[in-house]
Design brief:
single chain, about 450 residues, alpha+beta, Cytochrome p450, 16 helices, 13 strands, globular, binds protoporphyrin IX containing FE
Length: about 450
């Protein structure tokens, strides 16, 4: 079998007795994962005693992500997430997925996305109202808060005042951090120890659940389409069976969408402003594009097809720092990868980060080069090599919403402000449930022609 496969299989170097590669995965996961494609197309690592098969070739990554029958949702990443986030769209097994996806999909219909972009622009404007020329702002915190507000308000448009949105955002940050710690504990008993971090995690999760239950109950009491995601979830009805989502399922979907939608976008936006600040050539082109297209007015969704530099800069950030950097699957049956037999119940992993940093498709992979996405160059990238939103039936349901929102946030901010770097500690990547970053302090300078320039 092995001889007939065009792909190569290897064992990851540096495994220790008992721990396997758990230390590398805990301490330097990005560097470790990105080093593995050089060893083979499928590389076996061990997480404690558990073997994990990492697929490192774009074609195999697509096969794993598209063949949900053999490679079902589950494994190290999602099994832990499921315990806390419930059986929502992102974590449910294949057996539930088709029904859930059909019920949730209408909430992401293009017509509704247009309405959600009004929330995006309103929240971005509100954030910038607090900005002053010459002020230094912590952009990571600002983008996290903005994305949490946007996700909260697209999900739940009403009665979601500042206090609730703040609480939701701060609980979500604690839960996300805690989930990652839980995921990396090879010994299950450690997760239940009453340490301060475990207690903080469980308290934040309980507050989050209570908050969501309260809002869902409120919507049930006052039915009607408020134009938001929650209204669409409550109205969802399966065309064939007439089935709807029950309260527990709605709760799990809201938690899932909140979890999947806010930190991902917040981190991607913060990274984007970091790269623009460190690449003045790209920033100058982006400003020139905004000046030509917007001529000083605020952006709207109709401008997006003309904002090429904005789109390419964000795409390149998603390549370099993909918020979803690792996904796992569990095999439902014995199979093979690169000619290597894989038993049923095995962990198979896809690292978006490792795929996006493979120098075979992305020369100088650490270099921020938005022009990789010019059509004449982009067509050379093989399918499966650039998958920031995944692939197959489990592909991100929020991809269009995320891309549209991010482009509008970038356009609205860069239209009015230049975000400059300040001397300080070197920015670090912080891989958790999503790929975050250390605090990012940037200096605000009003752009000529923006209302703030005359302040
Ligand atoms: C830049 C922003 C985002 C990135 C990079 C991103 C990335 C991803 C990735 C890689 C997956 C697939 C995971 C896998 O294969 O196991 C995924 C799934 C998902 N995402 Fe996103 N996402 C983003 C924004 C959003 C937003 C805004 C929402 C909703 C408000 C969302 C909701 C979901 C859901 C529900 C799933 C599970 C889909 C399913 O299994 O059917 N995401 N996302």
């Amino acid at each position: 079998m092995g001889e007939s496969s065009p792909f190569t299989a290897a064992i990851a170097p540096g495994g220790l007795p008992v721990l396997g590669h758990a230390l590398q995965l805990q301490r330097r996961p990005l560097e470790f994962l990105a080093s593995l494609p050089a060893h083979g197309d499928v590389v076996t690592l061990r997480f404690g005693p558990v073997p994990v098969y990492l697929v490192c070739h774009p074609e195999l990554a697509r096969r794993v992500l598209q063949d949900g029958r053999t490679f079902d949702k589950g494994g190290l990443v999602f099994d832990k997430a499921k315990v806390f986030l419930g059986n929502g769209l992102a974590t449910c097994p294949r057996a539930d997925h088709r029904r859930q996806r059909r019920l949730v999909q209408p909430a992401f219909h293009p017509d509704r996305i247009t309405a959600y972009t009004e929330v995006v622009l309103r929240e971005t404007t509100r954030m910038m109202e607090g900005w002053q020329p010459g002020q230094a702002v912590e952009i990571r915190a600002q983008m996290h808060r903005l994305s949490a507000q946007i996700t909260a308000r697209t999900l739940l448009s009403t009665d979601f005042g500042g206090a609730d949105a703040n609480e939701l955002a701060s609980c979500m940050a604690i839960v996300s951090k805690g989930l990652y710690r839980q995921m990396l504990m090879p010994v299950a008993a450690l997760q239940r120890l009453p340490t301060p971090a475990n207690r903080r995690f469980h308290q934040a999760l309980a507050r989050l659940r209570a908050l969501i239950s309260r809002v869902v109950a409120d919507y049930r009491r006052h039915p009607g389409d408020r134009g938001d995601l929650l209204s669409a979830l409550l109205a969802a009805r399966d065309e064939d069976s007439g089935a709807t989502l029950d309260d527990q399922e709605i709760h799990d979907q809201v938690l899932t969408l909140m979890g999947a939608g806010s930190e991902t976008s917040g981190n991607a936006l913060a990274w984007t402003f970091h790269y623009l600040g460190t690449h003045p050539d790209v920033e100058t082109r982006l400003h020139a594009e905004l000046d030509a297209v917007l001529a000083g007015r605020a952006p709207h969704i109709g401008d997006l097809p003309q904002l090429d530099v904005v789109r390419r800069a964000f795409t390149e950030t998603l390549r370099l720092r993909p918020p979803g950097w690792l996904a796992t699957r569990i095999t439902t049956t014995a199979t093979e990868l690169a000619g290597r037999p894989i038993p049923a119940g095995a962990n198979v992993a896809v690292s978006h980060y490792a795929l996006h940093h493979d120098r075979r498709w992305f020369p100088h992979p650490e270099h921020f080069d938005p022009d990789r996405w010019l059509p004449e160059r982009a067509h050379r990238v093989p399918r499966g090599a650039m998958i920031p939103f995944g692939a197959g039936s489990r592909k991100c349901i929020g991809d269009t919403l995320a891309l549209t929102s991010a482009a509008l946030v970038m356009a609205a901010i860069a239209n009015r402000w230049r975000l400059g770097h300040q001397p300080g500690p070197t920015l670090r990547a912080v891989p958790r449930m999503t790929l975050g970053l250390s605090p990012l302090h940037m200096l605000l300078t009003p752009r000529p022609g923006s209302p703030s320039a005359s302040d």
